[in-house]
Amino acid sequence: TGFDSDNSSGDFSEANHKVPEMHDLDPHESNRTGKHNGETEIQENGIKRHSFLFNGLIMTVGFYFIFFHYKTSLPAPMFSRSDFSVWSILKKCIGLELSKITMPIVFNEPLSFLQRITEYMEHIYLINKACSHADPLERMQAVAAFAVSAVASQWERTGKPFNPLLGETYELTREDLGFRFISEQVSHHPPISAFYSEGLNKDFIFHGSIYPKLKFWGKSIEAEPRGTITLELLKHNEAYTWTNPTCCVHNVIIGKLWLEQYGVVEIVNHSTGDKCVLNFKPCGLFGKELHRVEGYIQDKHRKKLCVIYGKWTECLWCTDPTTYETYKKSEKRGGEQKKKSVSEDDIKSENDEADDMPEVQDTVQFIPGSKLLWRINCRPPNSSQMYNFTSFAVSLNELEKGMEAILAPTDCRLRPDIRNMENGNMDVASKEKERLEEKQRAARKERAKDEVEWHTRWFHQGTNPYTGTPDWLYSGGYFDRNFSDCPDIY
């Protein structure tokens, strides 16, 4: 989650995601007020909506929640880190808990960790696929692809997100994609972020809590995942749980920073007993296994139903176990297996979402007869100047006119340090970050003095109903928009 904290242990004082599917909207709904072509209407929940003409049809979407004209670039380019060294800070912190280390803002990216979590929803079409499949094996394949896609946006993202302040929130409603999302920072030490998302068609619930354990190994920083992620497919009465792989940033002393994911991820279908085991392979010598993911889906009797392979930075395929084993044996016998370039025709024959697949060159060795489960979205051409953000990430901090009257006062979009960094005002962002951390420290001391406990607003501690492990559960009520008792954290 990064290193910013209200306990500084260092010497530093800091002065377009393509829409894969459009949900049809009731034409009577959009005609109810007779307002079209950019005029607004007010919904029952107080959210403004825009109606406008698109390809001859009246479409209605949330006016600030990323629609057809959402921004495609940040207001200012990424600040250069070439004159700064992560090692200059970390060498003084060996043996210390990294969550209590304050880092200069230059190592950040202009998003909160709560917004980073929201990037799980970038490939929501995979959840929609899982909901639509009648076959439980195909549902598990789609869920496995979604679990892999959730970490794909981290590729080349070596900037750290801002640590959320205690009580900070973030919401996102995407009517075009059919979901709404809310998250809250429920604990500061240890840092814990809780989130909840639901389908607008009442077809799924996606929730969890995340609190990685940070470790500094001298040349690398490792974030060991903690917390359970749960996806419920309501139509099929199914629940899937898993934990993310370990994330590691290399070359913190010298050289170019690079990131890898490794570890075993087990996705369990608690209704059928099916399990998907995915091995995110460590890089290995000469980078042979870099970014590779291999695994399989088995039923409750441990019979392998299919094999999954690919790269979390590129694509994911599946094939039947017999075909996979035959192919591997042929490889060992020295048969000439060439990396097959996958054409658009191949993709169209294997995948319904062909029109949304980016034009990238695969480096995954394709096994004939495999089915494409997922492929990464293309990033904007200027992504390297925007912290390597995806189109989805670029839009997450967008603040349209009128939003402040609707959002909770604790929403990330209202954080002045993140906003100033996004606008390129680094000095102001640094001072604001220091001010907010001091404000948080003062509030904590005041609570301790008065012996007042912090109370979360939208989540509560409980037990995950499927794993039996401790979890943070959504208390409900956020979208009623009664924010009168939200804390003043900015």
TrEMBL record:
Ranges where the record places region Disordered: 1-38, 328-358
Coiled coil location: 419-453
Species: Aegithalos caudatus (Long-tailed tit)
GO biological process, one term: lipid transport
Name of the protein in question: Oxysterol-binding protein
Gene it is expressed from: Osbpl2
Keyword Magnesium among record annotations: no
One GO cellular component term noted in the UniProt record for this chain: perinuclear endoplasmic reticulum
An annotated Gene Ontology molecular function: cholesterol binding
Superkingdom of origin: Eukaryota
Biased composition (Basic and acidic residues): 14-38, 328-351
Keyword terms, alphabetized: Coiled coil, Lipid transport, Lipid-binding, Membrane, Transmembrane, Transmembrane helix, Transport
Residue spans crossing the bilayer: 52-70
Classification via PANTHER family: OXYSTEROL-BINDING PROTEIN-RELATED, OXYSTEROL-BINDING PROTEIN-RELATED PROTEIN 2
Stated family: Belongs to the OSBP family.
Record Gene3D superfamilies: 2.40.160.120, 3.30.70.3490
Stored InterPro entries: OSBP_sf, Oxysterol-bd, Oxysterol-bd_CS
KW Cell cycle (keyword) present: no
Compositional bias per record (Low complexity), positions renumbered to this chain: 1-13
A Pfam family the protein falls into: Oxysterol_BP
